[in-house]
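Example 3.2
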Amino acid sequence: MPVAVLATFALLVFAGFYALDYFVTGGGEAGEGASALERYISFDPDKLTDAVSALAGIVAAVLGIVITVVSIVVQLSADRYTGVATMFLRDRINIGVMAYYVVACVCGVWLSMSLQDDFVPRAAVIAMMTMTTAGLVLMLPYFAYVFWFLEPGNIVARISRDTVRFASAGEQAPTLNAMEELSDITSNSISGKDKIIASRAIDALKDFTLEYLEMKARAGDPWFKIGKDIAENPDFVAMDRESLRDLEDRKTWVEWKVLRQYLGIYNEALAAMPDVNYLIAIDTRYIGEAAAQRGDTELIELVFRYMNSYLRATLNARNVRTAYNVLNQYRLLIEAMLRMGQADPALQGVEYMNYYGHVSYDMKLTFVTETVAYDLSALCQYAHEREAPVQQSILDQFLLLDQPLQVKSQEQGLLGVRKAQVKLAAYYLKAGDEKRARMIADDMKDEPSDRLEAIRGELERVQSKDFWEIIDRGRNFEFMPADQREQMPTFFGWLNLDDGS
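Structure, written as tokens:
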């Protein structure tokens, strides 16, 4: 459309001035029976030679400008994003435009040598004029297309489409390379503090994985065999033969590669761009939920392994805020497992969360332990509401979370665990499940009365469900609805603690 508008406008301007000269200013004899168009195309061989040569020169000059500008822009993009040059040269529009200018140049050269004293190839001259005009008006819209083509978001979308196409065609090596290109874009974006592009590339890996899971059932056995191109990839070459055979048997080499890319990006962004870590945890959860929906237990286990790796890296970096957000996604993933009837994987996930609660407690990251406690409390409640077959096992895991104090600085962590357990006991009483509420009371029977008083006082002071800072979870850990808070006197009465009246 821009080319047509520019060409039409330019020709109308010229036609207007030419008609003005022909009919008004007396630029020529108009009374010889020839129309304006006939007079225009009555080319004089003696005067046409220079004009035809100029047409070829104009096209060649425009081609030089286009190549120069495009080369600079593509090179700048290629320095940031791997594979841009190859992608550019594969694009049909780019190839078509360059081919058009080359053809126009060749036609101009041959036309300039075809003129004779008694012969003017009028059709060829008009065609060359048309090609030159089109080449001139094409230049500006083509520059706009090139800049659009090289926008980072469009590059990411294009690579994502190629990845799906390669996987659909059963081409292992191109699929692998496309996934790595997306990872390279993310790494470069993290280095350049470009969160938007990094997020798009991470989402593109997730979108590819979800589309791949749709087509996975239709893939033949050769697709799941780890061929030479895969085995020699840096992410696979260090693995022992047994691990590679496990990936083949479990048919998860694609998902393993995507999640391995996520783990590398996660470690890179841990200190530089924590928002990227949150997004990786969210997208990993989406992959896990899709696996649960399809009953792909091998992929579910793989997702949990990588979520555990995220937590391990986060705790080692002592990044409490990131652990807080990753645990939120971990809890949502387990809730999805319970919702989709994947009870055993859900219980396994609870055991993992319990383990990292202990690890963070030993590392004196007490807020992380407290976060695990409230998440496990929420999972116990969710499992009870859905009458999940593993609800008792989840509660048993939760009651294993509290540990005796090692140092005074861990007091707050233990208080947080106990408050989460009291909150859950109050829920059980409200729901009429006194048996499980008494299990929690029995677990807390040896707690000193001053600690129990502190727990009750802190829980009673919380009146608002909204935390006073902006957080992803949105809710205050210690908040309980009024009907649930009303059950606390009964619970603390079992612990021989009066109501303070």
